[in-house]
Backbone:
């Protein structure tokens, strides 16, 4: 059974968690951009076709979406945590 971390975290711990998640999300974006550059421009000289489309076109478009979905799934399962960031007045709504 998972321990409820929502109430047991201090504000400093919550901000540290948010900062860490933002840093890893930024690094994921940089990794995705590097993949896009390598997949799109790096494979432009190859004469490989997928469904009559050049490899660079497939990897530079659809391939980037698949990698972005994979990165998002990994980040959400491994890194992100559900933490209540609201104040006391959120319960009255």
Residues:
């Amino acid at each position: 059974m998972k321990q409820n971390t929502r109430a047991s975290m201090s504000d400093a711990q919550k901000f540290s968690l948010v900062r860490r998640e933002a840093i890893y999300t930024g690094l994921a974006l940089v990794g995705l951009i590097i993949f896009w550059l390598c997949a799109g421009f790096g494979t432009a000289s190859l004469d490989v076709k997928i469904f009559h489309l050049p490899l660079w076109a497939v990897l530079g478009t659809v391939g980037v979406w698949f990698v972005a979905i994979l990165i998002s799934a990994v980040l959400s399962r491994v890194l992100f945590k559900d933490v209540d960031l609201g104040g006391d007045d959120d319960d009255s709504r």
Observations:
- The mean pLDDT is 84.
- Strands lie at 49-50, 53-54.
- The CA atoms of residues 48 and 54 lie 6 Å apart.
